[in-house]
Amino acid sequence: MALTVACSRSVFVKRKILYTLRKTCILLSTNETILADGGKPELKVKKGRRNKKPLWTDNQSWEERLADVVTPLWRLSYEEQLEVKRKQQQRILSQLSSDPHSNSPSPVRSKPRFPVLPVLPSPVRDGYRNKSTFSVNRGFDGNPKTVGFYLPRARDGTVVCVNGDHLLNMPEKHKLVARCYQDFIRLSSLEPCLLFHTGGHWREVTVRTNTEGHTMATVYFHPQTLTPEQVAVHKAELVEYFTRGPGSVCQLDSLFFQESTRTRCTHEEFPYQLLYGQPHIYEEVLGFKFRISADAFFQVNQAAAEVLYRTVRDLCVPNHEEHGGRARVGGTLLDVCCGTGAIGITMSPRVDRIIGIELIEQAVEDARHNAALNNVLNCEFIPGKAEVVLPGLMTQLSSAGGGPVSAVVNPARAGLHRRVVQALRNQPAIRKLVYVSCKPDGEAMKNFRQLCCAPDPWKKLTGEAFSPTLAVPVDMFPHTPHCEVVLLFER
After folding, report:
1. pLDDT for res 304
2. Separation between Cα atoms, residue 50 and residue 36, nearest integer Å
3. Integer Cα distance of 161 and 440 in angstroms
4. Could you tell me if 17 and 75 are in contact, meaning their C-beta atoms sit under 8 angstroms apart?
C-alpha cells in the first residue's frame, strides 16, 4: 500500500511539473527580470483563450506559485532534473541533425546524428545565483512597496509582486538585501515607480555577490520632476540606511544608484553612480581573476561557469599529451561576444593569440583590465558590433596567415547576426567553431542551420559547410528547465 501511494505521488508530481512547464505564461529570465517598456510586466493574452484553465489551483499559496514559475523543477530530485534536461536537449538538437546540410527544416529525427553527452551537473544546486534582480510592485496584500518577483493574477490578468525568500536558487544574502530594500522604500516619503507615466520613483534593486561573500547592490530610480538637489537628499538617505541604519546588516561592499527615465539603460546612457564602497567586485574562475562592474555580464553560477569554460576550452583547444607533457595548440582564437573576456583569458595559455569582440564598451574595458590583472599578454579586445568588426578582421587574418584559427561564439538569446555567420562560414582558415547557447531552440537554431547548410551564394554562404560533431549540455541553472549547450562544429 505504501509503495502504491509513493508511486502515485511521484506520477502526480511529474505531471504537475510538466503542466507548469507547458502552461506558465510568464517565466522569469535566468539572467534578468522581464519588464515591459513601461516598467511593468507585459502580459500577452491571445484572443479566444481568455477562458483557458487557470495556471494554479486556488489552494496553492503565492509562494508555491512563484516557485513553480521561477524554479519549475524544484519538486524533482536533482537526478530527475538532469534527466528532464537531457531529454529536452536531445529533442531540440534533433531538429538540427534531421538534415544538417539542408537549407530548410526537414522531419525531425528521434535522436541526433551526433553525440549528445549527459548533462554536466552544477557543483552547487541551491543558492547558486550570484546576480538577482528584484522588482517593486503591489503585493498580494495590496502594498505597492513590495519587493520580489511578478506573478499574474489568474482572474483579471494584473500582476502581483511576491517575496522570493523561499526560492531555492537565491542565496540568503540576496534575500536579505531585498528585505532591507523593501523596508527602506516603505520608510521613504517617495512612492514606488510602478508605471513610468503614473509617477513614482523607487524601482528595482540588483544584487551581485561573489564566492568570497562580497556584495554589490544597485538601486534603480526614476527622477520624474525632482531636481538634482532633491534626488541628492534621497540618495543620502539610502546610503545612511545601508551603511549606518538597519540595512547595515547587509554589509554591502558597493552601493550603486542609476537615475534613469527608461528601462534597461547602459552606463553610457545613464551612468551608474557609486554612492558607497568599492567600484568593483572580483571573482575567480579556473585560476583567473575577473573584475565585475555594476552592469557587466558574468555567468550567474560561478561553480558551474568553471565547468562550462573548462568544457569550451577542452573542445576548442584541447591540450594534447606529447612526450609526457602538455603541448601548446597555438594559432588564433576568435572570441565573439566575449563579454568581460572570461572565455578567451581562460584559454590564453593554449593559443598564440586571442581576439575578443564585444558590443558593450564597459565590458571591453573590464576585459582589458582582466587580461592585465592576470598578466595575459596575448589577448586583445575590440569594441563594436560583431557583424561590423568581424568581416574586416577576417580579411586581415586571411592575408596575414599565422596558423590555424578557431572560434568561440557566446551570443545573447537573439543569436548571431547573419553577417557574423557569413564571415565565420566564409573564412576557410576556421576549421573548428564552438557555439555556446542558453537557448538552442530559439534564434541559435537558425545560426546552426546557416553554419551547416549547403553553400548558397544568394545568402552569401559560400564557404565549406560545418558539421555538428558533439554537444555537451551544462546545467547552469538547477531547479529550472534551462541549461547551457556547448556545440562543437568542425569541417
Report:
1. 98
2. 21
3. 30
4. yes
Tell me what pLDDT residue 197 has: 83
Kindly give, in sequence order, each residue whose CB lies less than 8 Å from that of residue 195, ignoring residues fewer than 6 positions away. Answer: 38, 39, 40
pTM: 0.83
Four-CA torsion 304, 343, 252, 263, nearest 10 degrees: -100
Which residues form the catalytic set?
Answer: 438, 484
Radius of gyration from C-alpha coordinates of the chain: 24
| Cell of residue 109, nine digits | 529525427
| Measured distance CA(478)–CA(169) in Å, rounded | 7
DSSP per-residue letters across 271-297: PEEEEEE-S-EEEEETTEEEEE-TT--
C-alpha cell at 348: 590564453
Residue-wise DSSP of 353-399: EEEEEES-HHHHHHHHHHHHHTT--SEEEEES-HHHHHHHHHHHHHH
Secondary structure E strands in 210-336: 215-221, 254-259, 272-277, 281-285, 288-292, 320-322, 325-327, 332-336
pLDDT value, residue 432: 95
Task: Name 89's Cβ contacts closer than 8 Å, sequence gap at least 6.
Answer: 116, 119, 440, 471, 473, 483, 485
**Mean pLDDT per segment of 10 residues, for the chain of length 491 residues?**
42 43 38 37 40 62 94 97 95 76 55 91 98 96 96 80 96 98 98 90 97 97 96 98 98 97 80 96 95 88 97 86 57 91 95 92 90 96 89 79 84 88 89 94 92 91 93 97 96 91
What is the H or E stretch that residue 150 is in?
strand 146-152
Bridge partners of 474, per DSSP, are 120, 484
